[in-house]
Amino acid sequence: MSLLAQGISLDEANHEGVCVQELPVSERSCDPMDSLKPYVPYKEYNISKCSTNELLRTCFHSGSDTLYGTLSHSHLFLVVRCMITGAPWAWPPKWKGVFGRGWSSGPLDMAAVAAKDAGLATLLTQGIAMEVLSWKMYKEEPTACSLISQALNSGHSLALKTSELPALAVLAGTVTRELNSAVADRVSFEGVKENAP
Hints:
single chain, mainly alpha, three-stranded mixed β-sheet, 11 helices, 3 strands, globular
């Protein structure tokens, strides 16, 4: 919902998108991580996980196919799928007429989407730019997908923490200025800052 309120940044949506190819049918004898378990194709996995959640139930269906697994932008991808497939979300009033109609009433009116957010219309029609990694990687090094995904996500976490530091500095300065002498005698804000994690 915050994406709809703020607007879509195509640069951000298409930054560091990474996915991996689905294994060919001939390579699906077992799970690469555990030879005692059967391999679960991306399509079956997506359907089983999304069908248990009312908000994601429309995302995947038996007639669809899944050729790639996302290693980054997975949440954005699901939101886009929900928009395209008419998920029964509590859409903001501004967007209800566009997304709140359900898939049975036909495909999205892209002109209506573009009138509200041209970037979103582009994302919904052209998709998310992704670097495609070979399925062979998953067979040769089964943990590679997880490691790549974690590395990409830790980069986003680091960026978030970095942006929090200036905010903390501003807050510290504001609190220090606003403390009156009576409170300052009881609380050492500098001591609190030094002991903060």
